[in-house]
Amino acid sequence: MPAESLEQQIAKANRAALLLEDELLNEALEGLKAQLTAHVFETKDPRDRDRTVDLVNALGRLKGALVTYVSNGHLARRQLEELINGTREKRFGIV
Q1: How far apart are CA 51 and CA 32, in angstroms?
Q2: Distance between CA atoms of 56 and 33, rounded to whole angstroms?
């Protein structure tokens, strides 16, 4: 898979931020998580419990992936600004 350009990373970060801020999506995900969590404690079947726990964990990984896209977009934005302005911030005393 080819590396994404800085602009693509920034665009992806913007879309991810919109999703993270979307009230309806967050409400739906929290409701689903609550239903799944309740099911974990209600079920007697260990295989069903394991599958349900996996689904709850997948919801967390989804949100984590969106947060990662936003973070990567912030870094890409800083890199792009450095390229455009021709300046590079000193890091640890190194230019």
Answers
A1: 14
A2: 6
